Amino acid sequence: MGVPPCAQDHQEVSLAHALLEVGRYPGVLRRVSLPNQGMTRTVPESPNFKVRLTLDIKKGGGAKSQFYLLDMGSCWKNSGAPCDGDVTTDVTRYSEMIINPEAEAWCRPDCLEECPPYHTFHNGTRVHRTDTARFPHAAYHVYCSPGNAEHAERPTTFCDPYSNPQPQEILQILPHPVWGEYGYPTEKGEGWIGDPRTWELDVGAMSQSLYFYQDPGTPAAKRRWTSIDVGTEIYVSEDAVAEWTLSDFDILISKRCEKSHVSLI
Q1: What is the distance between the alpha carbons of residues 75 and 85, in angstroms, rounded to a whole number?
Q2: Of 34, 94, 106, 156, which alpha carbon lies 20 to 30 A from 144's?
Q3: CA gap 83, 249 in Å, rounded
Q4: What does residue 139 show for φ and ψ, rounded to 5 degrees?
């Protein structure tokens, strides 16, 4: 697959440029992220952008913390059309990399309902989840289909219909060698407590390759990411604390591929 020619010339669009934030979040059932700390008028669209950030995790929030190196959100209908406010047909889509090394892969050859149907490698090769020799099950924490997906491949788990006002689709990934060509961590523990790092992530190319559901025969959706943040979700825990420093958070967007000028909020 690689990086398209127009992604070789990037314009820096600062999102919380040189931002220094420390989050301390004791408690339970708390979603922690850093939205609204910076804005860009250009909405990043796959595959033509990268994200550069420096992250130093002091405390990870315990075993039940889903600490996201990046948590990305978008919205499009199962037909591939952009969302228009109709909560019966709009679908919120999430892509999240969990770097807490205690997070396990629920996607396994004997638990295919927790896996996306396909994985696409960096070179464009696509493999089905039943191909146990080639499908990287350990690269996926969990996948769930949108509740209104009429043609979702079985077996599947449908996403929780109660935590969002409209259907949602969630794809959570884990450090694994298949993500290394995009600049993401390849092994558990990379970038975790005691290992501060500066990352330059080819988020656009990687997010373009990820599986998201669409109805058969529909044109591919434009994947425009209106939410990109760093943080954690901590499930029911006693005295859980997450603390980190985030700095130099920049979105790099190709000049020649730049089309939209919409403020992120």
Answers
A1: 10
A2: 34
A3: 27
A4: -80, -10
